[in-house]
Prior knowledge:
Number of strands: 2
Number of domains: 1
Oligomer: single chain
Helix content: over 70%
Amino acid sequence: MKIFTYLCVLLAILLGVSFSLLNADTVTVNYLIGSAVLPVSFLIIFSIALGAILSFFLCMLSLLRQKSTARGLRKKIESLEKMMDTISTINKKE
């Protein structure tokens, strides 16, 4: 399954790079404090890379939240198990 994933990623990268190389014209990019003349290919690759980086950080944020929730639930289970052990010990003494 990992090989299939790696092949899909490699194919996507190759398609992206070939598409960007076919678009070598320059464009003017206007942003808030200025402007720049960049090749379309650079702009496409930059946009793809920025999207990948943002997606990675958003996934990591979600993963950290899930780990935090799991940690809290594990602590709750441990405290409930201790409580059950205490109750079973009291019941055995009676």
